[in-house]
Amino acid sequence: MSLPADTPPAVADALGYLQHYLQELTERQNASEHTINATLAGLTAQLQQLIQLITAPAPTVAPPLIPPSPPSVSPPFPVPAVPSKQQMRPKLPSPPDFSGERSSRRVFLNSCMLYLRLALEQFTCDKEKIFWTLAFFKDGCAAKWSENLFHQEADNGIFPIQSWTDFEQQFRSQFFLVNAEADAINTLEGSSYYQGNWTVDDYLDSFLILASDAEYTDPRTLVVKFRRGLKLNVQSQITTMLFRRPADTDPEAWYAAANYLVKDCPRRLDIQRLTAEQREELIEDLMALKDAVEEEEVCSASEKGFV
Q1: What is the pLDDT of residues 283-305, one digit of tens each?
Q2: Same domain, 253 and 205
Q3: CB count, 10 Å around CB of 152?
Q4: Which of these, 281, 218, 216, 224, lies nearest to 248 by C-alpha position?
Q5: At which of 139, 159, 175 does a domain end?
Q6: What is the CA angle 229-235-241, rounded to 5?
Q7: SS3 (DSSP) at 111
């Protein structure tokens, strides 16, 4: 651009500077537009590639080749299967049917509790245990009690017994004697409880039940009560035994001695069949008995004034 001839030098220099600056700005703008266009073109190409990858069908992959398995060879003899722990367990007998008789109440309850402990995996809750037990209440007052429980369930919409502990307590209160402990104590402490015509086994079974109901645990008390009910001849034979007489504080020894005298005791003592230790014990017992008899005779004579 030409300037008039009378243009001052300062103005001409300023205008030249401005013209140069505008030209530089224009060049920078052109370079920026070129860079932006190149960037947009690159992004557009990448976007098209992504769209093609998304819309393209997935390539099919051939399944891997599986080598053929060798033919199975059967063993020359069948291999027995290893039994599980449950299969190895012997079959448990079911409890007997229960009609409510007091004589069988303890046996029935013990049978049920034993089965439930050994076959615990068969029951998932206490209700199943209760219903399984009630299945054996088939007659008598036991069946009526079971029927009453199901009537209560029909009326109230819920079974009246929810836990096995509660069932056991109600069973005891229903079929066991109300004052079983007091009745047992009265029987054992009374003067009419004797072996009578019972065998030693029957008398022992009855005595053990009464002692359990009476909660007798003292060994000396058990021996006294058991001894008093025995037949007099059995009492006499046990108390005068020369060989291994049971102690008065050992009820188990008394039970065994009573059974031995009735079942296994020989008619006479065969000295030849005794061991050396047994012979020595027999001699010691005889010497002790001899000393006791002599001492008793001396005391008796001194009381009468003979000495």
Answers
A1: 776 676 666 656 655 565 565 55
A2: yes
A3: 14
A4: 224
A5: 175
A6: 155
A7: helix
